[in-house]
């Protein structure tokens, strides 16, 4: 294993440790649990959160324009998720943790939940 590989591994472990510390005393941080369980890096998790932020803005714009059908947003959501993650599990975890609630409530309507 090269030094670069070791540093990447250490950085991921440090990130997961920070998330675990946030979870102590909290039982509803299911999104963080999915990150750790699926060994996502901080960059991968940040990319998901950034994309959720963008989709949330799109949802607000579309609602303001009178849209009532948001299946295309669900398709976009599924496309940007890491292959290790299940869209329905992420939606449920985000709702449980209180992340992007309006977006996740809409996406849940199109999921298999």
What characteristics describe this protein?
Hypothetical protein YhaI fold, elongated
What can you tell me about this protein's structure?
The protein is mainly alpha-helical and 113 residues long. It has helices spanning 3-23, 30-37, 42-64, 71-80, 87-97, 101-108. It has a single domain (3-108), classed as Orthogonal Bundle (Hypothetical protein YhaI fold), CATH 1.10.3750.10. The chain is elongated and about 55 Å long. The mean pLDDT is 91.
Measure the end-to-end span.
41 Å
| Inertia-based shape | elongated
Tally of separate helices: 6
CATH hierarchy, class: Mainly Alpha
Instruction: Assign the structural class, choosing from mainly alpha, mainly beta, alpha/beta, alpha+beta, or little secondary structure.
Output: mainly alpha
CATH superfamily: YhaI-like
């Amino acid at each position: 294993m090269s030094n670069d590989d070791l540093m990447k591994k250490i950085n991921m472990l440090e990130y997961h440790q920070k998330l675990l510390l946030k979870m102590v005393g909290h039982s509803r941080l299911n999104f963080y649990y999915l990150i750790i369980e699926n060994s996502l890096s901080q960059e991968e998790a940040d990319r998901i959160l950034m994309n959720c932020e963008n989709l949330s803005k799109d949802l607000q714009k579309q609602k303001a324009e009178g849209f009532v059908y948001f299946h295309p947003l669900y398709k976009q959501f599924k496309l940007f998720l890491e292959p290790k993650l299940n869209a329905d599990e992420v939606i449920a975890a985000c709702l449980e943790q209180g992340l992007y609630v309006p977006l996740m409530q809409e996406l849940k309507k199109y999921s298999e939940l």
